Amino acid sequence: MAIGINNTISVERQLVTFLLGEDEFGADIMDVKEIIRVPDITKVPNAPSYVEGACNLRGNVLPIIDGRTRFNIERKTKDENSRILVIDVEGKATGMLVDKVSEVMRVATDNIEEPPQIVKNVDSDYLNGVVKLDDGKRLVMLLDVVRALNINGNVAQSQKEQEQSSQKNSTLVNSASDESIDVEQLVSFLLEKEEYAIGIMKVKEIIRVPQIVKIPNCEAYVEGVVSLRNNLLPIINLRTYFGMTQMEMDDHTRIIVVDMGSLTAGIMVDKISEVLRVPTSIIQSPPKFSSQSGEQLKGVAKLENGKRMILILEPSKLISEDELSSISGIDKAQKQNEEEKNITTQLVEEEQLVTFKIDLEEYGVKIANVQEINRMPEVTKVPRAPHCIEGIVNLRGNVIPALDLRRLFNLSEKKVTDATRIIIVDFNGKRTGIVVDSVSEVLRFERSLLESPPDILSSGVDSDYVEAVGKLEGGKRMILILDISKVLSFS
Does residue 425 form part of some domain? Predict the structure, then answer.
């Protein structure tokens, strides 16, 4: 049941996701040296508007770029959620101020698409792609942070000016580079008011709390199991395990997926604090209140001259293998999961469609091609676009062409109403919005009810656009199933 890391390296990427305004971005974790709280920032005279200033990071002068200003978003007052991503830009550390760090996640490369061509022509030299999550309901723009922060040497110049006024730190800078081997990288988190951490090499990913299936007759600290990419993942509630008072889950609650030695498990925590590098020289051996506590604690990191202490946990020592193997009910849940897989196999013989109407005719598209369904947004006209293209729409920072099926089918124009919807479809990595009069439902029926379309359709629609006809309710209800490849052939 453990999730093997070696089997996924070639097909997965690990990202740090963060917010700028209402948009969610992701950066490759290999580009992110660490994530820190916002320190005291010294303003740099005559610096570009997007340069927030510079700060001292362990003896190094760190230039800070305001992510909002860099990407033409209105500047915002920093708050408790604000964080700085420390990025390695051509060998120089540069900080980017973001509104909030969401999570550290692994994503399959199959879920990463090229940004729309029209975006590339505007301002997207910094976009490496778009990550589709939750069946396309959540989109994360993959940002090339190194390129975005490499601003024609301006940052380097600001850094140089600060270094000239801080010559006393040069020895510390050099020693920090020499000591890079003796640095522990940690994911820190909160339980009540205490701060804990786990070595990042033990962390596979960090996820929001999904639906948890309770397991009867198991240890009290086992919250249940969740399904993560077809693997059952036991969830351990650290509050219960440490004997703390219970607290209701909220938007900050996260599950850290960790390697516990013999298996992979999820550890539920109150809030992710940050990803940071800590010199091993400031990590002390843990106090041994008992033999068990001594094994579970890998060490104690003393930061800020001892004002901030982080307890570093050793996941493989948290729970014994006997306790893990004795968690009752997981075998039963595994069998239930197998039964669900068998049901999925049976569904292969069925067709699932999103159905919609244009005039009095009912059409359908395969749900596998549908990412989401939205109310009609504002449309921007595109000069000299194909006749069937209404224009382009902005969907959470993604520019998508809007295809008017009425125009494609040579039907009369109709004003947009409250029922008008735009269906975002995906075909061969190309996303397009299809404007329809109204959406009917999502339905599933046997493929035996499908027939080839007649050469001439009573609706007047070109039969080339129709892949099949679904006959429901004894033939009283007819659904024209569109061939998305033909419908989108305008491009």
Answer: yes
- How much is the pLDDT for 124? 59
Does 19 map to a domain?
A: yes
- Pairwise CA distance, residues 186 & 272, whole Å: 11
Radius of gyration of the chain (CA): 27
- The segment with the largest mean pLDDT, out of 49-53, 256-260, 328-332, 451-455, is 256-260
Q: Is 81 left (phi over 0), alpha (psi -120 to 50) or beta?
A: alpha
Do residues 1 and 231 touch, judged by C-beta distance below 8 A? Answer: yes
- Of 294, 328, 362, the last residue of a domain is 328
Q: Which residues of 210-235 are buried (b: 16+ CB within 10 A; e: fewer)?
A: eebbebeebbebbbbbbebeeebbbb
Written as six digits, the tokens of 417 are 């109403």
- Within a domain: residue 340? no
The mean of the pLDDT values for the chain is: 77
**161 and 41 in one domain?**
yes
For residue 126 the two structure tokens come to: 């910094």
Residues 24 and 163 in one domain: yes
333 assigned to some structural domain: no
Residue 23 in this model has a pLDDT that exceeds 90: no
Range of the domain at 205: 183-328
d(CA 444, CA 426): 20
Buried b (16+ CB within 10 A) or exposed e, 454-469: eeebebebebebbbbb
* pLDDT for position 168: 36
Asked whether the beta carbons of 51 and 62 are under 8 A apart, the reply is: no
pLDDT at 136 over 60: yes
Beta strand pairing call for 264-269 and 183-191: unpaired
Q: Identify the three-state secondary structure at position 386.
A: coil
Give the CATH number of the domain where residue 445 resides: 2.40.50.180
Instruction: Report the relative pairing of strands 389-395 and 477-482 from DSSP bridges.
Output: unpaired
Is residue 402 predicted with pLDDT exceeding 70? yes
CA 480 to chain centre: 35
225 and 164 co-located in one domain: no
Give the tens place of pLDDT for each residue, 138-151.
888 888 888 888 76
Same domain assignment for residues 252 and 352: no
Q: Please, which residues bridge with residue 311 across strands?
A: 196, 300
What does the pLDDT read at residue 490? 62
List Cβ neighbours of 202 (8 Å cut-off, separation of 6 or more): 258, 259, 315, 316
Give the E-state strand segments of 90-201 in sequence order. 92-98, 100-108, 112-113, 127-133, 138-143, 183-191, 194-199
Q: Are residues 20 and 93 in the same domain?
A: yes
Confidence band for 98, pLDDT divided at 50, 70 and 90? very high
pLDDT for residue 19: 92
